[in-house]
Amino acid sequence: MPSEMNNIAPEQLFRLRKLCHQLCALSCVDWKRRGLHNELLKQRPHWSVLKRDEEFCKIEQGETVPFDIALPLPARDPNRLDSDQGVKLFWETFKCQHCGKCCYTPGAGLYLEAHDFDRIAEHVGKKRLKTLCKYDKKIKGWVLKQPCPFYDLEKKECNIYYIRPQTCAKYPLHPPVKEIPYNLAVDAFCPAARELVKETLSWWIICENNWARLLSRMRE
Question: Which pLDDT score is estimated for 1?
Fold first, then answer.
């Protein structure tokens, strides 16, 4: 990490991240898409080694311990229509392994938005869909039972892929983690997400440089 960032207070770092999201989101996505982080790594080659060894151990814990991982990509800003570049680069980079773990893992059910329920019901019939769900009175909505009845374990594919629920279409993206609320986050349970986190780990060097530059301006 640049020397300016050493011993920075958590509150100040939080403000820097917010400011970076407001001022640098578009440029940092462009730099990462073009691979300009590699130039920074040449200037500080030790950075990638130290970060990689430490972080890879944490990332792999996602296979057995449920948690979310922040990505070096800006989340959408609800006040800006042009703030979806981070999401676009995520989907350009993410490669689903079709392992079915997100579909065929017994446990909590999948909440269906009203439009999800109606869209799937048109395809499979409302009566049949209800037998595959349970109605949750607390949330006043239908919850699809898991393991997902629409996942073909033998073929390793979703039988309703093109009309799948929005939650499935967005997975493994999760809401931003509390500590880094301005960045995209992924479910560490997803093997493909863990691989993406490893591949993009060095992208954080661009974020750190932006934070250091903004900090220097604030101190001038």
Answer: 47
Residue ranges making up the domain that contains 47? 3-97+172-219
Q: Are residues 13 and 87 in the same domain?
A: yes
Rg (CA), the chain: 20
Instruction: Give the amino acid at 199.
Output: E
Q: Which of 155, 170, 185 is a domain's end point?
A: 170
Helix 10-33 and helix 85-93: axis angle, to 10°? Answer: 60
What is the total count of domains within the chain?
A: 2
Report the candidate in 30, 31, 51 with the shortest Cα–Cα distance to residue 39. Answer: 31
Specify whether the backbone of 156 is left (phi greater than 0), alpha (psi in -120 to 50) or beta.
left
Burial class (CB in 10 A: 0-12, 13-18, 19+), 210: buried
* Residue 103 domain flag: no
Per-residue pLDDT averaged across 210-218, rounded? 86
Place 78 in a pLDDT band, splitting at 50, 70 and 90: confident
Non-local (6+) Cβ contacts of 3 within 8 A are: none
Euclidean distance between CA atoms 204 and 180, whole angstroms: 13
Same domain, 120 and 37: no
In this predicted structure, what is the pLDDT of residue 6? 58
* pLDDT tens for each residue of 177-201: 998 999 999 999 999 999 999 999 9
Rounded Cα distance between 150 and 82, Å, is: 35
- Asked if residue 56 and residue 115 are part of one domain, the reply reads no
